[in-house]
Structure formats: C-alpha cells, structure tokens
Fold these 4 entries.
Entry 1:
Amino acid sequence: MIQRYIPTEEDFVHFVWMNQYFNKEKLEHTHGESVQIIHPGYRNIDSGPDFNESRIKINNIEWRGQVEIHIKSSDWYQHNHHFDKSYDSVILHVVWIHDRTVKRTDGSEIPTIELENRVNPKLINNFKGLNNLLTIPCENQLHEISAVIKQSMIEYAAVERIEKKMNDVSKLMISTLNNWDIIALRLLLSTLGFNKNSQPFQILGRTIPWNKWPTLSLFQKEALLFGQAGFLNKVIDPYSERLKKEYLFLKYKWNLNSPLELHQWKFMRMRPAQFPTVRIAQFCAITNKEPSLFKTIIHSTNLMELYKKFKTNASDYWIHHYHFFKFSPSTVGKIGKQSLEKIVINFVVPLLFGYSNYIDDDKYKIQAIGLLENLSAEHNKITKQWKSLGMAAKNGFDSQGLLQLYNHYCNNHFCLNCKIGKNLIINQLN
C-alpha cells in the first residue's frame, strides 16, 4: 500500500505551484469547472496572499488577481483569512488537500484546486530525500550536480551574504542622512569590534560628534573615544591622566552624553591584540592618517593599497600596551593580516555595495567582488566540510558563498530555495 504524503510545510506546495510541477490535464476546481493556468503570478514576500498578478481561466473566462497557497483548504480559516479583506482579491485557492469550502469576507466562494494526486511521485520522493538529519542535506547527492550549477549557487549565496552585511550600512544611511564620510567612520568602528565587541562599538559610535572628527589631533581623537568608551573613569598612569583631562574638556565643550560602562566591553578569552582598547587606538590612527576614510575606500582598487592604509601603527603608547598600564614586550598596535581580511569582508565590501545602491551604479559592487576574489579562501570547519564534498573555495568570494549556503540554506533546510536542492528535486522527472 502506497503511503499518503502530506507536506509539513507550505513551502513545498509553493514550489510546486510556482514552477507548475503538476499535471494540468483536465484541470478542474473542486466544483468541476475547467481551470487553465495562464501565469502562476509572482511570489509575494510581504503580507497578504502568496502570489500576485496571477492569470487563470475558469470556463474560458480570464481572471487576474491573487493566489493563496495552503496545505489544507481549512487552513484558510485557521489563518483567519475569512476576516481579512486583503484576501478578497484571491481568484484561486491552491491546496494539497481539499477538506473545506472557503469563502471571502462577503460570503462568495473561492475556486479551489487540489494538487495531491497531480504531482509526480518522483518529485515527492526527491524532496523527501532531502528531509534528513545531515548537516548538509544533499551531501550524499552532490556528485549528481554539475559544477556550473554549484558555482552559480555559491556566487548567488555570496552576494546574498554581502547584502545581508549591508543592513548596517542602510541603517547608518538613515541615521546620518546619507553622510558617507560619517557612515564609513561608524561602520569601521563597529567592524573593529568583530564578533564580541561589535555592539558596544556601535553604541560608542552613536555618542561621538563625527562632524568634529576631522578637526581633532590624534591625541584628541584618542581622548574622545577612550573617554566616551568609559576607559578613563579610573586614571592609572600619566598617559591616561592626560587623556582624561582632554576628554573632560571636550565632553563639556560639546555637551556629550554619558560614557559607556566598563562592563559593556568584553575581554575574556581574547588575545591582547584584539582587546577593544587596542582596536580604539588602531581606529584613531587609521582615521587620523586618512582625511576622508570614505574616499580612501572607494578609490582603493586592490588589496595592497587597502592593506597599506590599514596597517598604520597606533600611537607610541599602544605599540607596547594592550590596556592602560598593561605593558607588552612585543608589538601590539599594528593590525594583523587576518584582521585586515576581516576588515575587507565586513567593512570595505558592504560599504562599496551600499554606495553602489545609493548611486544606482554597479561599478563599486564589481570593485568589491574583485577584492573578495583576490582574498585567500577562508579555512574553517564549514569550508573544510565543503572541501571534503568536492566544493573547495578558490578565494574569499567563494568562502562567503559557502558560509551563506551552509548557515542559511543547509542549516534551515531551505533546499527549495537553493539551486542545488531544486536541481536534485526535479532530477529525472522527464
């Protein structure tokens, strides 16, 4: 006896409808009238019915409007669509199982088609084959997919990951009224926090009068940032005493908000070179050297140029200190190669993408992708796993794609949204 298959998620029914992977021969809605699909419509990612601008014919009368997808017809009522007037424009209800007649808010019935017995069993079996407990659901089938499709998905996922990183740029555009000099400064500051201190650096960035920044000396920049960060509350050596004196003057002059609390900063399980104190000193040195950080970024077309800009030594005190009164015999204040690569990935590239969108010109997106393609591939547990499956990253751009593919698609079992997963599902249907 063949076991009945009922999808657990609507995504599969969406996939079938959007790609029209069902038998349309003698297609009728649940009251026996003929249905012809002219166009399935376009997926709606906002609130409201699932597909917009759909076109169908019912008994040779053409209808244009929206299509709603459910596993069962009764889900219409479970989701309270019968109370929502935005669903009155639905011209067709597409379900896996029809178990109840559905009506609009005015009581008129909505034509419904049932897909359960119209979908190729091979398609269902291929989809079910990806519903497993593997960290990469298709890892045992990857060899069936062409290199072209794999690379296409890597590139798509890489751009998607960059655009996700660009969210911070979009927020800064709003809060700075599109002041790209300030956007660059604040984005670099939060980037230097990397994972552990990104949030306090973002908060710190909101307390600084950035329009005054270019007029300050290196010493004043350090005084302002260390003071607002809360590191000058307790004076421990002559250097911090001088900084605090200057900071209090600037704080009074510009009526600055209260500084951060020390508990907001994280130092545990970090190498001294990654301490937020060191990062603040590095930020001050970099931005003191470059009159316009933003112009420096958009005019830098290769990695060597960028590395020279960011490899600036911190001020003398921070060359051999990783905290106030914490002396280090080895050099601390210069940014290392690994950190430089992270700055390119998390600061330079999103900034270039954001600016490209702002001026509606892909020039700087191409420049950003070129920088990533010249970066070395990342070596971590995720990229190593992909390499063991025959999908090794050739460069930094590929690494970004493989990380996004793993974290967003594989971890969430979004196989229906992945070119590799789609190809496996529709494999051998014809």
Entry 2:
Amino acid sequence: MSTLRQQFLQHVAQTSESPLLLEVSKAQGVFLFGPNGERYFDLISGISVSNVGHSNPYVVKAVQHQAADYMHLMVYGEYVQKPQVELASRLVTFLPQKLDSVYLVNSGSEAVEGALKLAKRYTGRYEIIAFRNAYHGSTHGAFSVMGCEEQKRNFRPLLPEIRFIEFNNTNDLEQISARTAAVIVEPIQGEAGIRIPDVGYLKKLREKCTQAGALLIFDEIQTGMGRTGSMFAFQHFGVIPDILLLAKAFGGGMPLGAFISSSEIMRSLTHNPILGHITTFGGHPVSCAAALAALNYLVDHKVVENVSTKGKIFVDILKNHPKVIGIRQIGLMMAIELGSFERVQALISFGLKNGFIVDWFLFCNTAVRIAPPLTISDDECKNAANLIFEGLNAIA
C-alpha cells in the first residue's frame, strides 16, 4: 500500500515542484507534531492564521456545539443565523462607528473581490489603484491588484483599469484622481517582507482619497486580529479606511473572511442589481462560531496586550547575530533579513530537521518570516529564538 506522502503527491494538486512534505498528526498550542512524535515550533501560524494557537479549547468547543445545532442552511444573507449575527455585532464594537456593516465571506481572496465590486458599485468609477509588491489573493480580481508582474503574466488578461504605485512614495499619491474608485493597500506590506509605512504616509493617503472621492480599502487579512500588537493595524496609524478586509486569523482556524464598511456604502450591493455580491458558504455558521470564540479569547485573555513584548524577545536575541542584516518587526510579525535566498532556504531546512518552522516571503526571498501564534509564552519565544540563533550559526 502506498504511504500517505505518496498519495499526497499522486492525488492532491500541487502548487510547487518541491512541497515541504511535512506530515502532521496533531497540533497543539504553538507546536505541530509528526506521526512519530516529532515536535516543531510553528513560527508561521499557517501564514498568520493560528493567532489563538492550534486546537484552542475555546474554539474547539464552539465548533462542536455549533456543528451539533446546524451547519449550512441557506445562501448568505437570507436567514437570521445566530452565529453570523453574534459575530458581526461583537466585531463592530472594536471598530470605528463608520465600519458598522459586515459582509461575511469564505476567504481573504473573496473579501478582496467583494471590496473591489463594492467600490466600483458605490462610486460608479472603474479605476483601482494598488501597490507594487502587494499581495491580495489568487482569484482573478485579487490577482489583478497583486503588485508582481512575474506572478501574473501567464494568467492575463486580468481586470482592466488597474494602476500601480510605490508604497511609501508620497509623490505617487498624485495619481489618485476623480477617475479612481478605490485604493487598496496593506497598511503593513506582508509578502513584500514586512514593510512598515513611513510616519504620516497613511494619513496622506487617506487625505488624498478623501479629496478625490475614492474609497480607501485596507487589506488587513494578515495584520488583523492582534498580529501587530493592536487588534487592527490601522489603529497604530490613526487612519480609518472606508472598507476593511479580514480573513486568515479572523476565522480562528476555520475558513472565514469579511469585508466591512458603512451601512450606507454596503447598501449599494442590495439593488440595481439585487444580490450585488452573493455567496453560498460565506459566513458559515461553524466558521462564525469559531471566529467569535477566537475573538473573545483574544479579549478575555488579554492576548493582544502582550504581543509587542513577545516580538521584542525575538528581536533582542536575533538582532546581533552576524548573519542578520536587519529585522523589520511590528508585534509578532517579523522579517529577518539574511541577504540571500540560499541562506533563507538553509535556515528553513535546518528548522525542519531541528524542531522549528520558518518561511520566506513571496516578494522578498532574502528574509525569513517569523509569525508564531500570539499565545506563545515568553519562555517559548526565548526557546524558539535560540533555536533560530543556532540555525544561523549552522548555515553557511
């Protein structure tokens, strides 16, 4: 009989020619466990998903209870489903008053798609401005606003009327005009290697969008739900978007996304035509129950308040290693710059053999990604950082 790994390679569609092939039998807290008892520090959280830790008992209990009551009932938006209502009502208590209407979807990519449609419908305009080295997902609309031509060229034609500008370049903001429906931006660029905005940059972007009548979309799919040391990254910068996007950690480990705006803007999807955006499984009751449990866990256990301190532990241990060129960090979202993809690959390989998992960035392959579950303890931060330090010692 073929092994599980052989069946994976034969029957599960592949996304690269060299998958990691890490076999996981269990996950708990900040650890993944292999079939023979191998233990790995998960220092990437499934790419910023497992913020409340793997197999969080509060989330597991919520999933079990909701699955026993009901799962899918009807396409989104027709029935009053308690998990959706409770999640949306709780979520908006942490948001500015103008972000009071939540459209629940399946994923980050769909949140982007919904936001782009909403912006076009509300403004009556077609041009979308995005940023070079931005990542927003892999569906056609989200792909269209991805800021990397190398990734996109073999899938064209994509959406028309997309214009790209440079992150942190204030001169480029002049390209926002009366033709622009929306500007979509990650307040902290993730796949570009944790690029943090210059002081005042997002405020200038906000001002320019307001002057031009363009909607400002913040993609917080990676940064949301406490990853940066505040519940949402926009809170660091004193800038409120017109549309906020969530996914990844939002679902507490279950598939869930959302685009959030004002009731006035969101209402434009209800008419001319009706069902301006529709989704069968968006806001799935079990996913919503998991998301509410995860949100409450973050708040009740004061998880977010300690994120910045934990991030500093990693920085303090790693910053003086001679192979570390620099560290870009906010909260538990870090890029350790090593200067070459070869060193990044070597550290990833070392980690898989020595009990920790790190990763690279899609548009910055010279830096290592560190983004552990936010529930990681101070001692676990120290232990994990010391393992990385040992790895840096061992690689060429």
Entry 3:
Amino acid sequence: MVKRTLPTNPKTRRLIKLLRKASASNQAAIWKDLSESLTTPARRRPSLNLGKIDKLTKEGDFVAVPGKVLGFGNLSKKVDVAALSFSQSAKSKIAAAGGRAVSLEVLVNLNPKGRAVKILR
C-alpha cells in the first residue's frame, strides 16, 4: 500500500496544520474535513467556477472551497467565498456582486466555530 504524504507546498502544509488545530480547539469538525480535502494531490483538488457557486448557494452564504475558484460564469448573489486560491476575474466578479473573496486562514479567524459555512467540492 502506498503511503499518503502531505503536499510539498509549505503554505498548504501550514494551512492544514492550522485547520487541524482549529478543529481540535473549537470542536468544529468542518475544519478537519477541510484539512482532509487539502491533503489530496493538487491535480485532484476541485476547481469551481462562479456559475456553479451561484447555482448551489443562497444570498448571504459563506462558502469554503478546498481548491481554486475560477471566474467562468456570473455571480448574481452576495456570497462570501473562502478558497485556497482565486483567479483575478473570480475576485473581481465576487466583489462586484457585493461578496468577499478571502483565504481559508482568514475564514478560520472570522468564524472559529465554523457555523453556517458550506464546503463545496
């Protein structure tokens, strides 16, 4: 059986450790689930378009994406999105819709308990 290793990117490794600590200290299983999603190889991480985010969310939702958010499609609702990375067009379209595009570290600081956060894959 092949041994599963963590990503080699130091930023991603720090983020995984931060999420695991936040999960243990706040009794929030959502951070553990998110950290497990980040341990997958980079080529298997999800890339979500704004059109899919628009379809799966309601006004005022907070969404976490364990991958990259791309700018294809339109965002018609005010949605706050936290992701590992964003394309420039995705950031500008989220801001134009009235939402925020933040990193996953900022999301942990804003909402330590992880309440009302949806993970989209």
Entry 4:
Amino acid sequence: MSDRIPALSRRSFVTASALAAGAAAVGVFPASALGRTRPRADRLRVGLVGCGGRGKGAATDILKASPDVEIVALGDVLAERVSGARETFSGLSDGMSERVRLSDASCFVGWDAFKRVIDSDIDVAILATPPGFRPGQFAYAVEKGRHVFMEKPVAVDPVGVRKVIAAAKVAKDKNLSVVCGTQRRHEQCYLEAMKRIKDGAIGTVTVAQCYWMQGGLWMNERKPEWSDMEWQLRNWLYFTWLSGDHICEQHVHNIDVVNWVLGTPKKVQTAIGGRQVRTDAAYGHVFDHFGIVYEYDNGVIVTSMCQQIDGCQSRCEEVFQGTEGTLSTSIGRAAITGKNAWKWKGDERNPYEQEHVDLVKSIRNSEGLNEGVRIAESTLTAIMGRMSAYTGKTLTWEQAMESDLDLTPAKLDWGSIATPEVAVPGRKA
C-alpha cells in the first residue's frame, strides 16, 4: 500500500513479542476466543484475503508479531497474486517460512475466494483487498466467527460504512477481536502524545490541521487483453468505487488522528479538490488534490489537505493548537511547544507489527479489542470530505451517515464496466 514506511527499531518490539508468545501457556481457550476449542499451545491459524503488496505485508507482520501464528490459506481474484504471495512467503527468514502451511487446496482464486478463505479452518482473517470490497468481506468474516485484521479504509461510501458499523457491533457481541490498519493507534509516540493531550498539556484544542502531501503513485498501463474490470482492479487507486479516492484510501490515517482527539466532525464547511496534473484517462477519474475545512464540536475548525502530485513539497503530519501549547505528530515523531514543552525520545516499536501484537494478545486473552466502529467513523469523515469536494456543497455528518450513496457495481465479473466521469464541482458529481 501507498503508506508503507521502513521498519523502525525493534528492540522494544522483541520484548513485546516475547510477552505475546508467553500467552500460549498450556490450557484451553473458550470457543468465544478462537471460534472453536483448541489447545492453548496450538498456533492461531490465519487466512489472507487479498494477496497484493499490503496483504503480503500484513501477513508478514503478523508472523513477525508472534511465533504463535501460522498462515494456512490465501485468496485473491487474480491467480498471479496468490502464486506471488506463496513465493514471497517461502522466502521469509528467521523461521517464518516454516509457519506458512499452504497447499494448492488452501489457495483460492476468483470472486468468491474471500468466502473460501474465511470458510477454511482459520481463526483470523486478514482483509487486504481494495477497500470497496471491505464491508461485505468483514460482515462475512464476523458472521463466520472469525477474528479480523482489516486494512484501512473500511468502506468507500456511506452504505458500506453503515454495514461495517453493524458488523462491528455483532463482532462485539461475539467477543471477536477486530484490529484495523491505522497503525498510529498502536504507535508509542502517538500513544504518549494522546495521553498528554488528555492530561491537558496543550490546554483546550482550538484549531487543528492534518496533511498528507506527496508525489504520485504507481500506475499499470492497460494491456490489450485486459477487460474493463481487470484494468480497473489492477489500477484500483484511481477508481472511487475501489479506493474511495486518496483522501479516503491514504489521508484517512491523518483524519483518524484528528478524530482520536476531537471525535467526529459536525460538518464540512468548505471543500475543494480537483484533477490538476493527473489528467490522463490512464489514471481513472479520481482527484489529485483535496482541501477540506471540517467543523467539530465547540466550533473547532480543522483544515485537512492531501495531494499526490510530483515535484511539490511533501508533508505528512497532524498539528493541534491549544490554549496552552501546540502538539505536532507524525510517523516516529511527536512534540509539544509552549507551556508544557515535550519531545518524544523513546524507543519506537514498528507499529505495523505492534498492531498485530495487540491483536494476538487480545485473542489469546479473550479481550475483544474492537476498532471497527471508530475506523468506520474515520472512514466516513474522509468520505464526506470527498463527497463535498466532488459536489462543491456543504455536508453535515448526519447527511453523510444517512446517504444512500452506494458505489458497488451491480455485477462483479470480468466483463465490461463503465469508467466513471471525473466529478466537476457545481456541475456533476
């Protein structure tokens, strides 16, 4: 995925992994913990849905997070992705490849591959397909009693958001663990920063900004033998029904941090966006920049900016200005200026692995860690910003949540599918 970062220091992470492994003492888990009665010494069985870069990364991360897990099933709509994942996993070091127990019979290809993985004898489903498929796959995994790690965002439209929220509530009733790919929620510098905000280190937050400004991303040039559907799937970043546009697919990380501090927004005050540089039809129909002004409770204004344009200044951070100081946060960094000045200097664990450490711990201890509703709300925050920018209209939280917008194609197969037109604010959305 586009937001992958280099591995951080693992010195503290090794200790955390050892503690997680220590949870595998002899005993028996209740059925609510593993979906079946299983000796505690047995490993958690993991199935991967979506074998692209992020899926392979997430599967590798959970293997690193605990010696007490194994990969036993794979699924993707594209056969080459499944075979590529098998090859990647066979080459893993540090004994991890020995915990990849796959056969031809446990590797599935096709539109129903996600069901066949989830229906396998697994404890945990990793959901890492393009986000447009996430709501249905998550709901099915919960229905089947599987613990879930799912990548962000978790939907591309309000109908999908509501489906995720409903499934997350069912997961809570079943005491299933649900962890999402917003790794900042598991990153030590962010956790320390949030603790200080809660303790009043910057006073009352009055205004905030969040940014993900970077260059362009990958694009696969269309081949003559590809159908419309295959072309869109292989370039899923550039189609809103698959990615939600980059404000949703990528910038949701920063938006989620803002919601962590302020809750959900009341409305979008102003939104702009467009397709200034990526004008070629090869890039689908999504925008290359957004600028959103959200209004939160107590009149707090948040400016949200994101772009994917080469040759421009990069910036990826969140800034909270309060009555007593200012907090800025980013990957591996957090600092407060003002009355209670502070700077993070701790030993950072790799948050991509830490989120899986936390997932395994939750499953082993029957804690029911469930991040489903809050990531659905952060996803909707990004979606409402996109909806407002596409239309040029103000939008309230209630209007977005109750919207009947559903971008799912009527039919999923390898045939023809129309390329949506580029939104023109004030004219067509």
